[in-house]
Design brief:
Layout (H helix, E strand, L loop, with lengths): L2 H18 L5 H27 L6 H14 L6 E3 L1 H12 L1 E4 L2 E6 L2 E7 L4 H4 L7 E5 L2 E2 L5 H8 L6 E7 L7 E6 L1 E4 L3 E6 L4 E6 L6 H14 L4 E5 L8 H9 L7 E7 L6 E4 L10 E6 L6 H11 L4 E4 L7 E7 L5 E10 L14 H6 L6 H8 L5 E3 L5 E3 L8 E2 L7 H7 L5 H13 L6 H7 L4 H13 L6 H5 L2 H17 L1 H9 L3 H7 L2 H5 L6
Parallel strand pairs: 11-12, 12-15, 15-16, 16-21
Antiparallel strand pairs: 1-18, 2-9, 3-4, 4-5, 5-6, 5-7, 7-8, 10-11, 13-14, 13-18, 17-18, 19-20
Length: about 525
């Protein structure tokens, strides 16, 4: 066992005893004594294994497993985070890293640019979707791993990296020198106007910059004439509670509680109030959620629902009502522990039961009839009232005001679109090369361009040439969806990922139904 691991174990013992022994009540003292006895048993188990196990034991790995197992007995969201994962987690939630700024995948053995991040060094250097990076500093990048890509392309701000790029419509590869810079990891995936009055914001996470990003996006959309907003939190698994508060505060113009937390320790009990000077009620609001919308997403949608600010549409959310705090440990790993529960303004706790174990806890989300099961449990769920007196329920996620099922596609279609070879992206990128000179604006392309039957046949031929078998009868059920997806891929190649989403959203059934529901959402506004 490493010295660092020994230090962690001994520190853990001291923490347990230090928080238990000062209490003088006999029952608490008895519990502390029991903990001490269990730790002695743990030490005995470690010693016996260390001396007698048939092979040399990797104690770093074994004790990491022990830490994971200990925390799984608490709840599904308390976690031990090995030091190897800390940097990537911190990047996501702190919102930046240093590098060249590309979304990429390894296709055909080479680093393939899916999209340069807007404003990044790669964007400024002119990299385009579909470009292949075939050399880095004069060394072949063929069959490079993703971990190696991070090591070679990331680096200190201001340093240079030389790459060789192969572009489909050019005969020869060409060199590119890129100066690394700070790359923001944005939580607002896209923000644009769907039509003359409808804004759309898709939020992927709640990181340290989310509140500011949402504010900037809303101000931009309002300047373009937005009078109604679709705020898309689907598959947003959450993040910082403080940022959830900052986001929902921008929708609320009344002096109300947005969320409050209750825990065992006094310093975990907090009430977060709206600042009426921050909120904006110049637009109708619909929030889109699904079963993977969790934590901070549920804080936002729960507050909007309880305060009657807008409509929640989609599926019942994940059901995570627990708040974690993270502590760094001596070896660079981290401990994330649930310290409190959060409650929506009406007093709802929306945490789902987790007593059947972590596996069952997550498996419930994949049930095809999940909404029907939840509806059957509604009568026994605790009832609350919104600010205007509507009845809402606690005990298992945020139930939408407007249920909209997500379109289900056949196995064959899902396999084609989700294939690791990225058939739709590659085909779309090739087709974009042919169309680049024919379409000057995205607006014209969205209105006039269509995926023809011949184009579909060409795409299916491309997939078959890769020796991928699929059931054509299944695929034919999803042709409208496929046409839209391929059109979106072409748009993304021509004008960037924002253009991909602008076209893709036009074929999104949940967005379409939400667009028809703004009269109901507008009824919640507190002014004519």
């Amino acid at each position: 066992m490493s010295k660092k691991k020994k230090l962690i174990v001994s520190s853990f013992i001291l923490i347990l005893l230090g928080t238990s022994l000062p209490f003088v009540g006999p029952s608490l003292y008895s519990k502390a004594t029991n903990i001490y006895e269990k730790i002695q048993i743990l030490n005995q188990v470690i010693a016996l294994i260390n001396e007698n196990y048939v092979e040399k034991v990797d104690w770093d790995d074994v004790l990491d497993g022990a830490f994971h197992g200990l925390l799984e007995k608490l709840d599904p969201h308390s976690a031990y985070i090995p030091k190897e994962r800390i940097e990537s987690i911190n990047e996501v939630f702190h919102g930046k890293f240093n590098g060249i700024g590309i979304e990429f995948d390894i296709l055909g053995g080479y680093i393939t640019v899916i999209s340069p991040i807007v404003g990044s060094p790669s964007d400024r250097a002119g990299l385009q979707p579909g470009d292949q990076i075939i050399e880095i500093e004069g060394i072949s990048a063929y069959k490079i791993t993703k971990d190696e890509v991070f090591k070679k392309l990331r680096g200190r701000k201001g340093t240079k990296v030389n790459i060789t790029v192969r572009r489909r419509r050019l005969e020869k590869p060409f060199p590119v020198e890129i100066i690394r810079d700070e790359i923001p990891i944005r939580s607002v995936t896209v923000s644009f106007m769907i039509d003359d009055e409808t804004g759309y914001i898709r939020l992927s996470r709640f990181s340290s910059t989310t509140g500011k990003e949402v504010r900037t996006s809303m101000e931009s959309l309002l300047s373009e004439g937005m009078t109604q907003l679709i705020f898309d939190l689907r598959t947003n698994s959450g993040g910082y509670l403080s940022q959830a508060v900052e986001v929902v505060d921008q929708f609320i113009t009344t002096e109300d509680t947005l969320v409050y937390t209750l825990g065992r320790r006094p310093d975990t009990r907090e009430v977060y109030l709206a600042n009426p000077q921050v909120g904006n009620e110049d637009f109708a609001l619909i929030i889109l959620v699904n079963r993977w919308s969790a934590s901070a997403s549920e804080i936002v949608s729960g507050a909007v629902q309880d305060l009657d600010r807008g409509i929640i549409a989609g599926e019942t959310t994940f059901g995570k009502g627990l708040v974690q705090r993270q502590w760094m440990l001596n070896d660079g790993s981290a401990l994330r522990v649930t310290i409190s529960r959060y409650y929506t303004p009406s007093g709802r706790l929306i945490q789902r039961p987790y007593q059947n174990g972590t596996s069952a806890y997550y498996h419930e989300l994949t049930d095809e009839n999940r909404e029907a099961i939840l509806d059957s449990l509604m009568e026994s769920a605790p009832a609350y009232t919104t600010k205007s007196g509507r009845v809402v329920h606690g005990g298992g996620g945020i139930k939408p005001d407007l249920y909209i099922s997500q379109s289900k596609y056949t196995t064959a279609t899902s396999r084609i679109i989700g294939h690791s070879n990225r058939f739709t992206f590659n085909w779309g990128n090739d087709k974009a090369s042919e169309l680049r000179d024919k379409w000057s604006t995205l607006a014209e392309f969205k209105t006039e361009f269509q995926i023809t039957d011949n184009m579909l046949e060409d795409f299916f031929g491309y997939v078959r040439d890769s020796n991928i078998e699929f059931d054509m009868e299944e695929v034919e059920r999803d042709l409208d969806y496929l046409r839209n997806y391929l059109k979106a891929e072409i748009a993304g190649s021509l004008w960037g990922r924002q253009a991909f989403f602008q076209v893709h959203v036009a074929g999104d059934n949940q967005v379409k139904v939400a667009m028809e529901s703004f009269d109901e959402a507008r009824a919640f506004l507190h002014h004519p």
